[in-house]
Amino acid sequence: MKGPHWSWYLLIGFVALAPAGIRLATWPGFKQSASEPQMVQAGQTLFVHEWKAHDPLASGGDGLGPVCNAASCVACHNQGGPGGGGDLTHNVTTYVYRSDAEAAARGKPREGVVHAYAVNCAPETLHDLHPELPSLSRPSLDQIVNLPGNLRSSSNHCIVAPPAVRLSQRNTPALFGARLIDGIPDRVIIANERTQRVRWGLAPKKSESLPVGRALRLPDGRVGHFGWKAQSARLADFVQAACANELGLGNPGQAQPRPLSNPSYQPVGYDLTLEQCDQITAFVASLPRPIEKLPEAPSLRSDAVAGKELFHRIGCADCHMPNVGSVEGLYSDLLLHDMGQPLEGGGSYNDVPQQPDPNKPPSDPNDPPQPGEWRTPPLWGVADSAPYLHDGRAPTLEKAIELHGGQGTQAARNFASLSKAEQDQLLTFLRTLRAPSASD
Amino acid sequence: MSIKFICSCGKHLRARDEMAARRSMCPRCGAPVGVPSLRPTHPGTPVAPLTPQERLRLNRNKPRSASEALTTAIFPTLPLPACSPSSNEPSPTPKAYRRRRQLEQHWYECLAYPFLSRNVLVSFALVLSVGMGSIVLALQSFLQSRFPWIAGVVVVGLILAYAYSTVECALASALAGKGAASYLPTWSAADPLKSGVRWLFCFVAGPIVPTSLAIYLWIYGGDLTALDWAIVVELGGVAAAYWFLAIICANQRNRLRDANPVRVAQLVQRLKYRAIVPVLIAPALAIAHVLLGLSALTALAQHVFAGWLLLAGCLCSALFWSAFFFRLLGVWCYCTKP
């Protein structure tokens, strides 16, 4: 029998190799664009600028407000220089209604921010959300969360929120090294998700106790990188949202929020152009990355080295992964982890525009973040970004570790079972993770 | 009680005790058959003596059945071992009949093969699913010390080696031209170890490359698109096909070094159009089983019993199918031996 013509083999080989060829050609790499110096310069001006109503820099709109949380970016992002983290006094209060119907009944968006200040209009208060809540614009953290006694900073009573609304706060994170996070390809974050699942015996994506996180897929298919709930895919998106939500500077990327106290408020136009937003993004992207700074004293130095080893051994590095893709020393997997009921907090700082779909099963891996889910915060620069956790409830590193629940329970237990000396070694290691400008 | 025996055409027969050591006729092929005696009386005489007419008819039947085999075009140059009159099997016991059974003539006859050792295969599947399930559950429960599950992996690996050396017997027996029966490895550790080494070697000598590529793509490729899935499935298929063929090559002359691309290509060439089975059909089933098995292991976290049941079913099916495919390929190789 005569065999098939050789061209058949060629054709089969070609067809077999074609998919791999296409895939190789379109393999996404680490994208990173250096920002132009004049963009950075202009962005810095906008970042530190004290905005006013009808500000000359906001040519097209109403300037600061009508509602805002501060008058400049740097008012919150300032620890260790412009772009750093912020203290409790600048916490942002967020709310979420438990159901769409509840929100519709009150004529409010399902989730959003209760802004601290108002310009030329009545301030937003909790009372606007629900008649049972007090008329407070700037609740303190211990009014929102029932913190254990040793964490309470004042004698304020905790507000008992009605079941229809959930209140929580967000502490200001540092922005150092944001460009590196921005450059991490989506597939690298998804790879973290996969390796964690394989590592724990093909554990389900939403495990209650195993450190198996999930990458947050936004409705457009991109993967979240920024925000306590990983709600923004790119730095530029987050900056646009921050301009609108924090300062009331509406821009083509994100409309400014309407005051809860005055939902019929009509914005006159955009406060910022996209170009101005890009300048701010360029400035944020130009912030240097945090550093690992070993102490001078040799004994502390060896403690830090031993602490780093412990950090891996007791399972901290499962979530706070030292390296992600080509970014070294990040100490985060950028995945959402269920951190347990005490750390729950719903609502969103900037809109996660997806609503749970009632037709989908509740365990769909592409669901929006659950109240108990938080993105592992990168620990780089952690020594210079107190207070800790999403609402800053932990004043110290020890407290932050102790409060890990849900998927972090086991690691926290492991930490508690270390000897005092070993715990100190681990904390010494964490204290070597400094903001870029850190000096002793 | 009745006597169970098998006609040379493969039909399972049953006779009353009174028929022991007497002659009867096979209801399927019409050939005369000797009912085995309850006690071996005349060593060397496989069946009770035939009458001259019967002998004549038997001889006339034989070439015809051989030409039938030809027209089925499954094995064109089939030397049917059990049909050859110069059979020199000495043992007259019922066991000997089992061994002297004929090689399968049609591909679907091989489907019966795994059922001959069904008890063994099902037991392996059950034991393996319990072992694998325990390892996965142990992984999921913060097992701090590594020892228990390393031990578990070793035990499960050993059982797996036994299971697969059993399956490999399907291939080896067919390659040696032995008729369908339940072939089992010896209980000495040497058999499964040799088998395990062979499987591992055949995996490392080739399939490991596409497998690693597929795993790499699954982990680092982001959310897989249809194109990515096509590549993963293709790589998995190539790996499974090559592994399968390499194991056959290594078994043919019992030499590990035969598991090389040249021999594999020669084998494919020899099988001609039948190569579609090891190259496409078996790998497709293998991939389906791997996916099913993985989803069973995933389900284990939420529903232990359902997950385990699915896993056991999947393993069982995998063992049965692989026994079938090995038997079939073994028969084909035997028949196309140059």
Task: Please provide a written account of the structure.
The complex is a heterodimer of chains A (440) and B (338). Helix content of chain A is 31%, strand content 7%. Chain A is mainly α. A three-stranded antiparallel β-sheet of chain A has the order 3-2-5. A two-stranded antiparallel sheet of chain A has the order 1-4. Chain B is mainly alpha-helical and 338 residues long. Chain B has a domain of 223 residues. Chain B is built from eleven helices and four strands. Chain B has a two-stranded antiparallel sheet. Chain B starts with a strand and ends with a helix. At the A-B interface, helix 1 and helix 7 of A face helix 4, helix 7, helix 8 and helix 10 of B.
Key structural traits:
heterodimer, A: 440 residues, mainly alpha, Cytochrome Bc1 Complex, Chain D, domain 2, 2 domains, 3-stranded antiparallel sheet, two-stranded antiparallel ribbon, 9 strands, globular, B: 338 residues, 11 helices, 4 strands, 5% strand
Integer-rounded radius of gyration of chain B:
23 Å
Largest interface: A-B, 29 and 26 residues
Could you name the ranges of chain A where pLDDT drops below 50 across 5 or more consecutive residues? 351-363
Q: Main beta sheet of chain B: strand number and arrangement? A: 2 strands, antiparallel
Number of strands of chain B: 4
What's the N-to-C terminus distance of chain B?
46 Å
What is the ordering of alpha helices and beta strands of chain B?
EEEEHHHHHHHHHHH
Main sheet: strand order of chain A? 3-2-5
- Gap between N and C termini of chain A: 84 Å
Count the E strands of chain A: 9
Shape field of chain B: globular
Beta-strand content bin of chain B: under 5%
The main β sheet of chain A shows up as: 3 strands, antiparallel
| Helix proportion of chain A | 25-40%
Question: What number of domains of chain A?
Answer: 2
Structure classification of chain B: mainly alpha
Strand pairing plus helix content of chain A: what structural class? mainly alpha
Number of helices of chain B: 11
Helix coverage percent of chain B: 55-70%
